[in-house]
Here is the input.
Amino acid sequence: MNSDAAPALPKNVVVVLFDSLNRHLLGAYGSKEFATPNLDRFAARSTRFTNHLTGSLPCMPARHDLLCGAIDFLWRPWGSIEIWEDAITYDLRRSGVVTQLVTDHPHLFEAGGENYHVDFSAWDYVRGHEDDPWKTRLDPSWFGAPALPAQPAAIDRNYTKSRTYFKEESDFPGPRTMQAAASWLRDNAHEHDRFFLFVDEFDPHEPFDTPEPWASLYDDDWDGPKVIWPPYTAANGPNVPDERTGRQIRANYGAKLTMIDHWFGRMLEQLDEQQLWDETAVIVLTDHGHYLGERGGIWGKPGVPIYAEMGHIPLMVAWPGATPKENNTLTTTVDIHATLCEVFSVKPAHRTHGHSLVGTVTGKGTSSRDSALTGIWGREVVYVDNDLKYVRAPLEDNRPLSMFSNRWSTMPIHAYPQIRLPRPDHRAYLDTMPGSSVPVIRQPFEKDDPVPFWAMMGSFHGDHLFDRVNDPDESHNVASDALVSQAKEALREALRKIEAPEEQLTRLGLS
Here is the structure.
């Protein structure tokens, strides 16, 4: 037997996508602030990527990167699968691979998230997380729920009603999702020739609500209702909490992180009991991080530069026959899609942007990526390579902008029903996406036009440039005329390489 032979491609793949999983707070990446024993245990058998970055942001754009393999934040803010593309599950279904979705992510079942689930062989939606419109009234049989009383949200939230239906810890959406995924592995893993299990777990996303014993785990002397809804604000914003409240919010994030880590252990137990490790690759990752008071008081996902806390994210891959190790290869979310395509020998018909990680994980090759782009539609665009990170804000007017979509949907905000996506108007025209001949509506936005939600936050101004080698924490903006000139050219080339809309270069001052 040739000892240098690469491990064979796995039969099956499990992807576990946690939402808002902060890399810098995981034990596997050196943190001691919160306990994550099961994620640490998983990391010990994995390739632990240390240079993994976000792509399209936030929640649904990141899922588009993963399931469709195409960066979309340069063309639209938030949306479903378009008619010129397919999720990988479409190609897997045609290839005879059984696909299962288990999720409590409410955006997947709203306008703007529709169609991601339709090509799975089966899907299991666990109800009640965040603003899921699940219940119309409080549970009259159990007021208060098993959790401690929580500070009311500043706006009306569906979760206020939903949480009264959680009678015990196993009723909370995160635990139910992990248990459903574990049960699927127990009952189905050996009943199919090949399978792809996608566990889209919304925890530890807010609300940071847990029952005991988790609720008091990291802040047992807090006196008052739990603060489970973090503000979204820059460090100098109007909603920055006082120091004591900030510690309570951060502790509640940690409690939810440790609770969902505990229930993730149920999945690991089934992978053990069903003896699946020898034929199944397991990929654990997130869509983005979440600011918890870092950098002078940034909270949530506000209009600030995409710092490391948000954009430098965890990726761990357990691969049959591969030796656990740390790997510093530059990777981003679309690379997971490319990896799945190679494992299952499928080729999408639409244009994609990923680089497979199979060779990197097995040690018999490397990803060919030398740079990555990340950002939010209508806001900053970020270029990253192994040496530098360049954050380019739009010019002051942030115009011209255009949105490409044939489904014309965006994230619904249940508490603010008056906020809607501006409809196409007489200025809209038909265009095509790069690599496609399918007509698409292209709607321009000019100065003073209302814009889709995530661009409404506005943006910072000026350039931010970080030395990734000597300043991995991004503490010092080293932008100078000479360095910015070089970085601008690198960003311009990266945008042109993927045929980004010309107005993106114009509004960034790069044309």
